[in-house]
Amino acid sequence: MTFVLHWRRDGAPVAPRAGGPAVHGLTGLRDEPVTRWTRVPLSVLAFEHSPSLSITESPACFVALLAGRLDDFSNLVSRLGGASRFGDAPTDADVLAAAYERWGEQCFERLIGDFAAAIWEPREQFLLFARDVVGIAPLHYWSDSHMVVLTGHLGGVMVHPLVSTEPDEGYIAEILADDDHSRHETLYQEAWRLVAGHAARVDASGPPRIR
After folding, report:
1. Contact between 128 and 201 (Cβ < 8 Å)
2. pLDDT single digits (tens) 26-79
3. Could you give phi then psi for residue 70, rounded to 5 degrees?
4. Among 33, 141, 181, 189, which residue has the least CB neighbours within 10 Å?
5. Dihedral sign, CA of 9, 13, 17, 18?
């Protein structure tokens, strides 16, 4: 699943130009996004029709996004409230939201599956994102003092107009030498990949904190 998430750290609306380059830059995957989900200061573009991407807004106002799938789903639903809470057809994002309400930022430690996930928390102004321990689903990101871009495809980061295309020569050298030992780096100096089994928190200011 290819998605692009933009979050304005200062609470301002995401500028339309932030979405435009992502649309045109990923035309090799799809001409236009098939889903646009926006709530100031958050915007999500999805480029495929797929049940593997779900987004939900909790009554507590935070937003949960999950790309991929959660395993042991029925047991997890039961532990978090069952049909009385979720109804007949909960999405993976619904269950992620309930897990976050129950366990907070440690919720990812209790989830198994093949997923990349994000929680936007407007009450405390932070974005939390994570990958499962197997790490099949990729997750890339970029941030500056104003904006965070989070995507399941490196191209979704690189088409943003503020992201430098300066190559990371050290990482390229590792690849050419068949000695790829870096964990967070990508081909570009300003784009990063989240390591499998890790989570990152980005607040209104400061660098991402990874654990």
Report:
1. yes
2. 544 444 666 678 899 999 988 766 778 999 999 999 999 999 999 999 999 999
3. -100, 135
4. 181
5. positive
